[in-house]
Amino acid sequence: MQFSPILRKEGIFLAIINVRNLTKEFKIYHHREGVIGAIKDLFHREYRIIRAVDGINMTIEPGEIVGYIGANGAGKSTTIKMLTGILVPTAGEVVVNGFVPYRDREEYTRHIGVVFGQRSQLWWDIAVLESLKLLRRIYRVPEKAFRERLAFFDDLLGLGEFLHLPVRRLSLGQRMRCELAAALLHNPPLLFLDEPTIGLDVLAKARIREFLLQVNREFGTTILLTTHDLKDIEALCPRVIIIDKGRILYDGGREDLLRQWGHDDLEEIVRRIYQGQRPGEVEAGV
Amino acid sequence: MARQSWFRSFLWHGEIFFHYAAQYLKTRMAYRGDFWIYLLSDFLMQSVNLIFILTIFTRVPHIKGWSREEVLFIYGFFLVPFGFYSGLFNHLFDVPEKYVLRGELDRVLLRPLNTLFQVVVETMNLELIFIALGGIIIMIYSGAQMDLAWHWWDFPLALLLVGGATLIYGGIYTLLASLGFWAEGNLGLMPMIYNLSQYGRYPVTVYRGVIRFILTWILPFAFVGFFPSTIFLRRYEFLPYALLTPVVGLGFFVLGWRVWQRGIRRYVGAGH
Amino acid sequence: MFESLRHRFALAAALVRLEFINNLAYRATYFTGVFNYGIQIGAYYFLWDAVFAGRRLLAGFTREEMLTYVIVAWVVRSFYFSNLDRRVAVEIRNGDIAMELILPYDYQEAKYCRAFGEALFRLLFFTLPTGIVIYLLRPFQLPPNFTAGFLFILSMLGSFLINAQLSLMAGLLAFFTQSTSGIYRAKRVIMDLCTGLLIPISFYPEWFQKVLAFLPFQAVSYLPNLIYLGKVDTAGALAVLARQFFWAVVLFFLGRLFWRLAVRHLVIQGG
Fold this sequence. Notes:
Chain B is mainly alpha-helical. Chain B has helices at residues 2-30, 32-56, 68-88, 95-101, 105-109, 115-123, 130-146, 154-183, 189-197, 209-218, 226-232, 239-270, and strands at residues 62-63, 66-67.
């Protein structure tokens, strides 16, 4: 499962994200009901194994923005967690930016930015600016570069108004903007976004999309994002990967997908895919 | 080469520690009233033991050959490593629930810093290090009552012993916190060990047989307060034990760290 | 009237059961619970044993009585002890209390019911096993006669009632101050020292004993222990129960008053 540096040099993993046969299994324990059940659980616990990600392959080139979509529980977050080094794969190969994420974690995480829409990465009780300053130390960002980037973020995201508030007092939209700034402070070549627009209003979403495009254009940042809002995909991602029950159903251009289905509504197509239809069955299915 | 980069990483983490500490103090100072009440209530908690000792010694002149001043001195010494432990490691008991079950460790794993280090600096209660100050005051008071003579080498020695004793605490708590990776949830061991650690406040000769053995060799809390302080009480019959303190500390810390590493591997293998 | 009482009782029973099951969910705690109490008891047991080494009588206690006192005091504490103070404080602090206020029941009563559910759980999983294990390891004195034993068990209920009410009040203080942890820590210090759990009241200086006589604390631990040890006769034991009853009633109304003030405070603050 590990790659020798020679393989890397020989260019077998030339792309920025290389995933082969990636698989992740979890043990799920049952909790039995009531007093008796709880006592039974003490002695013997039943579990089953579920395969959250089932042998997926993907290659992403530098500078791409890729939308990674799938129904709840399809395996999106699990994939992202393996790509960011939080989880160790059960089987398969991951090489990102020349690193094996879970193995080279401390070094690898210097070169990526991550935003989880459902969970804050900032310190809850300290002012945003203080959080950023602490991150500057952790990621060893030089003072001058820090100032410049902060000005850039402020310009695009309008952070100035709440830089001095603690994170817990921010609205969700404000917090998300801060999360993005925090994730990009060290100018990583790669940005992972797990549902970055969840719960945001229309304006906030538009602002974040605009920002991501700008970052991608300006710094050539590769972006992989998961979302349930297909407007995000339409606005950002020329390429789409669709996953269902741990397997990849579609990997290709967004426009190609529309053409394949002969439909111009992405949302409708995705809904049908989740329902298990194939392009050919469109008419028959309805 | 490898050693050097290890050392540099260590120094760098030290530097980052101060940035975290500065942030921590800023946050705490935002609720100044809270800060002082918290500190005060912790002193109050400690005063229970003091009142206990003082009350008992109004009825008896000594306990198994240990005078009031000696017992106070041992208690005072115990409070110094205990203070460092309280300030740094006490909230490692959050690890099973907060970090493992609720998945906060995800965030920790995304940062280019040592995981144990991050958990410690995120959960520390730095102000509790002040407890150590209380311990020093008790030592000075009881030492003066006994007319203890101090040598210059007592101070570096005390530093070394306190360091070792703190590592014992740190190691044991890291070990316990790591068990949360296997138990998926709180094992309830932390309060148990905390209570056991409180045995270390008193001369270990108070205890008999099995308990004394456990406190010396299994969960060596006798090395936190009692053994090292006997050097300064000039009760040299415990000298070999006292000098063993830093070794025991280092051993336990390395053990704790190893188990932690394995726990992390397990978390990233099994988390959800 | 009768119908409403029946409903009320059904609700109380449901709450007690709920809390009992809730506690069961923390499977780890009852594995370690007995050890935990064993260790805590041991700490003071061995210490007192050393204190009494070569001495016959201290502050009215023989060595044997004192060791029994330590064990009984802690074993009974494993029954009446509750996290009510912390839970209420946390509820207030994170705003969950609003959810409690919209439920159609009496807040205080509901809290006592849940505390009782927890106490029953503790009785089954901590108190009895701990008591039995310690008795097997090192037999301690049993009550001198059946009456004393019976009255002692009754007094355990009194201990629970007084402790639960004090805890609830301590928790409610979170309405008035930000430093909730400070409050319940201070409360625990007072409980440890003033109930006689750590040191029998008779060890304290005269003046302090006089002060404590006017307070409810020693009815939680010290006085019930005297019943257990047979250091008070039946009349004395009944007097202890009466005293517990008196304090339970006084604290109940004090708690009500407290709750009124606290809720008003909440309304003024706007939650």
